[in-house]
Design goal:
By secondary structure, this protein is an alpha/beta fold. It folds into two domains: 17-51 and 160-347, Rossmann fold (3-Layer(aba) Sandwich); 73-149, Rossmann fold (3-Layer(aba) Sandwich), CATH 3.40.50. The chain has 14 helices and ten strands. The strands form two sheets. It has a six-stranded mixed beta sheet with strand order 1-2-10-7-8-9, sandwiched between helices. β4, α6 (110-118) and β5 (122-126) form a beta-alpha-beta unit. α4 crosses α8 (161-177). The longest helix is centred in the middle third of the chain and has 17 residues, at 161-177. The chain is globular and about 55 Å long. The N and C termini lie far apart (56 Å). The structure holds 4'-deoxy-4'-aminopyridoxal-5'-phosphate. Residues 52-54, 82-84, 189-195, 242-244, 287, 289, 315-316 line the site of 4'-deoxy-4'-aminopyridoxal-5'-phosphate. Residues 20-316 form the Tryptophan synthase beta chain-like PALP domain.
């Protein structure tokens, strides 16, 4: 009876944490748009309730497991994640009454590990080893799920519910927000779910007119894989960015690989300076994967030429990485301090 009284038709109210996922703004970056003569548009995924683009995929992988019966009342969600999927999953698990177990490489920021703990997840930071190694965080997550009853390994890297979340939500939002007037899309990949889902949707809607460029940090194989047609995948190097870069073609990227028009490799020196520039000129505080994406959008604008509309993704804010991004010793360790442009040195306050 009481619940019937409470169910009123409000014009614009969403239902709980999950209802608040998505419908993020598309922000025009003014100074970069002026500089390139293009519209540089960035999808503000940091506005999702768990703070990142990964809330969408986290919801879809849980929903998928519920639908196919692998996850039942009181069950456990287990995942290997660089952090953001884990944060999304931890929120959703709390909201839906599941336990949440997270394996992550111990190279990730302490803030992400702590946040997961605050959200009630059990966290296992493990040595960062390659996918081929059985001790890789993903394999450990799978084995953990297999070892306990009513548990599901959500397998974000190869589970195409991830791609589907962006095909059904992020992609259509971009299409609607631009009225279909989009010429290019670019973003980096972790699982590749965002890139793949948005690319698939925009290619379908535009009948192939929209170009899609993969953006890669150093240390990731996708750029070289694409450029050498799979002949010489090269993962040498490393990056200060977190949550992106990949050593293989994941199950989310495989289905759309043939839709990729080109690949860009973005040096850390450009991504880190863009981070301070966006803070300086636009007042937007972002993590490194977002600023790499913005550099890629600018590169794509130069390639496609003036008058085009390029869309990219702002995956999360800089808060989780602040103790690194503003620390002189961290930047020195990464060999980046000397590359910071003089006008941005004021940001290095730690
Ligand atoms: N940026 C950040 C900060 C992330 O945590 C992730 C996911 N690991 C990505 C970008 C990449 O998203 P996707 O998994 O959809 O490729």
């Amino acid at each position: 009876m009481g619940s019937r009284i409470l169910q009123t038709n409000f014009p614009s109210v969403v239902d709980g944490f999950i209802g608040a996922i998505g419908r993020t703004p598309l922000i025009r970056l003014d100074s970069l748009s002026k500089e390139t003569g293009c519209n540089i548009l960035a999808k503000a995924e940091f506005q999702n309730p768990g703070g990142s683009v990964k809330d969408r995929a986290a919801y879809y992988v849980v929903r998928n497991a519920e639908k196919n019966g692998t996850l039942q009342r009181g069950g456990t969600v287990v995942e290997g994640t660089a952090g953001n999927t884990g944060i999304g999953l931890a929120h959703i698990a709390r909201a839906r009454g599941y336990r949440c177990v997270i394996y992550m490489p111990n190279t990730q920021s302490q803030t992400k590990i702590d946040t997961l703990k605050y959200l009630g997840a059990e966290v296992f930071p493990v040595p960062a080893v390659a996918y081929a190694n059985p001790q890789n965080y993903n394999h450990q997550a799978r084995r953990h799920a297999e070892s306990i009853p009513n548990a599901v390994w959500t397998d974000q890297f190869d589970n195409v519910a991830n791609l589907q979340s962006h095909y059904e939500t992020t992609g259509p939002e971009i299409w609607d927000q631009t009225g279909g007037k989009v010429d290019g899309f670019t973003c980096s990949t972790g699982t590749g779910g965002t890139f793949a889902g948005v690319t698939k949707l925009l290619k379908e809607k535009s009948e192939g007119r929209v170009s899609s460029f993969i953006a890669d940090p150093p240390g990731s194989v996708l750029y070289s894989h694409f450029k050498t047609k799979g002949q010489k995948p090269d993962n040498s190097g490393s990056s200060f960015t977190e949550g992106i870069g990949q050593g293989r073609i994941t199950g989310n990227v495989k289905p759309i690989y043939d839709l990729i028009d080109d690949a860009l490799r973005i040096p850390d020196e450009l991504s880190i300076n863009m981070l301070y520039r966006l803070l300086d000129e636009e007042g937007i505080f972002l993590g490194g994967s977002s600023t790499l994406n913005v550099v890629a959008a600018v590169e794509m604008a130069k390639i496609l030429g003036p008058g085009k509309t390029i869309v990219t993704v702002l995956c999360d804010t800089g808060h989780k990485y602040a103790t690194r991004l503003f620390s002189r010793s961290f930047l020195e360790t990464k060999g980046l301090y000397d590359s910071i442009e003089p006008q941005y040195k004021k940001y290095i306050v730690l």
